Amino acid sequence: MRKMRAALVAALVMAAVPAQAQVQMIVNFAAGGPTDIVARLMQNEMGAALGQPVVVRNVAGAGGTIGTAEAARARPDGQTVLFSPVGPMAIQPHFRRGLSYGLENFAAICQVADSPVVMMTPKTSGLRTVADVVARARAQGTGFPFASTGAGSIPHISNVAFMRLANIEMNHVPYRGSGEVMLAFQQGQVQLFTDQTLLIRQYDLHPIAFLTERRNPDFPDVPTMREQGYDLVYTIWSGLYVPAGTPEPVMARLEAACDRTMRNAEVVAGMNRVAQPILYRNRTEFAAFSRSEGEKFRSLIEAAGLRSAE
User: Fold this and answer.
1) What is the pLDDT of residues 55-90, one digit of tens each?
2) Domains of the chain with CATH codes
């Protein structure tokens, strides 16, 4: 009887959603960066699985919090989903004061990726090693800039940790997304960025060091930060969320569509092509993981005194 009631509820929910109603996928960073690229890799197969077009909409700014706040305010009907990396969900609620949302305002659907993080630079910068970065930072003092995708993002937090360990000061320059940082690289505004691996080949950059446990098999000659004497290990995970209060049958439908999408051969090939390791977690697993990550970063931010004045 319980299964019959669940099936009836699911059927009613499906009937209430027009077959061709668009599903809006909010991406909380600018076009051209890793988060946007993965969302667009998923877009077509996700739409096919749902039987509805999926439209990606970039709502960038403030370390991903503007788009995330908009998604939190959306109707909990499954027609708006959020594709987000770790920062806006697990870091920003503890780092940035006055946010209108927290992790409790969302329900997790699925995690799709867990990407290694690498310190990188334009090939024309003259920086080749971590020692080069430290030397230039000491020579230029606070005038030496590093880029991030916003205060409180992994590209920001990881460099704050690096500065503390290296006993150096650098000037933080935030952008709305990795695509904007690449433009800043081309214009010579900044020379250092720590973000996801796919940018290295996409923009022909020089990788300085990986913030990973072991060397990356795609770049075996590039050392880890630990090999350079800095105990820094970070990854950037990403996944789908919906506003809290979304009906159970709707979430189950989205989860099934996500699972199908991440098993699709073209999507898998695309993820490999852009150096985004697939790490799939279902909504129960992803909800628990999101909470544990939020607690981890809350403790780190409080211990380091990194809370934003905003």
Assistant:
1) 999 999 999 999 999 999 999 999 999 999 999 999
2) 2-114+236-304 (3.40.190.150), 116-210 (3.40.190.10)
